[in-house]
């Protein structure tokens, strides 16, 4: 079964850091781009970051550029999101998603909640 | 920067009826870079349609997509109670890259 499972969310103070992980299984991980998408409470979906299949290319939404870093370990079938200088507006459920063809996201994890609050 | 506008905000219909959801982009987009997702409360989104009109694996044929340019449509031909959800359109452009609409809530 194709699946991705996020972990690492939690409560962090403003200005703090957190690293999210996304473990993939059921498919050849190194063949796929991977993404992070977030959803603030009661709000819509927002793209955060993507990494290409070999880790050599990354992009970020303007709102997180310079603060978040995406990376992957193809030997461990895992993608990461290092989040620094966290702000209250980063509070959201963070979803890991697999890139299917045509720039769509064809497999999503259950999400991990990040709460930034003092 | 591209802006996606979904309409209506909420759609209230009965089982068996047809639902038509609209997604309008502020600039022309390649139809092959458009998608639709379904999200039920407390669940992750699920890909329904990609490349404007291709159904994702396991998606019933009552879901269909169409459109090109700036206007894209998701149609649910015969609503079932389990179709109650929020539906999001998503487009890919060069900048910003992946953009979602604000969602349409379908109540059955």
How would you explain this protein's 3D organization?
- The complex is a heterodimer of chains A (about 120) and B (about 110).
- In chain A, a hairpin with a 6-residue loop joins strand 5 (about 45-50) and strand 6 (about 60).
- Chain A has about 120 residues and is mostly beta strands.
- Chain A contains no helices and eleven strands.
- The model of chain B has no long low-confidence stretch (mean pLDDT about 95).
- Chain B is mostly beta strands.
- Chain B is globular and about 40 Å long.
- The interface of A and B includes residues 37, 45, 59, 103 and 106 of A.
Write the layout of secondary structure elements.
The complex is a heterodimer of chains A (118) and B (108).
Chain A: E1 3-7, E2 10-12, E3 18-25, E4 34-39, E5 45-51, E6 58-60, E7 68-73, E8 78-83, E9 92-99, E10 105-108, E11 112-116
Parallel strand pairs in A: 2-11
Antiparallel strand pairs in A: 1-3, 3-8, 4-5, 4-9, 5-6, 7-8, 9-10, 9-11
Chain B: E1 4-7, E2 10-12, E3 19-29, E4 34-39, E5 46-50, E6 54-55, E7 63-76, E8 85-92, E9 98-100, E10 104-107
Parallel strand pairs in B: 2-10
Antiparallel strand pairs in B: 1-3, 3-7, 4-5, 4-8, 5-6, 8-9, 8-10
CA(first)-CA(last) distance of chain A: 39 Å
Number of strands of chain A: 11
Helix content of chain B: under 10%
Question: Which word captures the global form of chain A?
Answer: globular
User: Main beta sheet of chain A, described?
Assistant: 7 strands, mixed
User: What is the mean pLDDT of chain B?
Assistant: 94
Helix content of chain A: under 10%
Low-confidence residue ranges of chain B: none
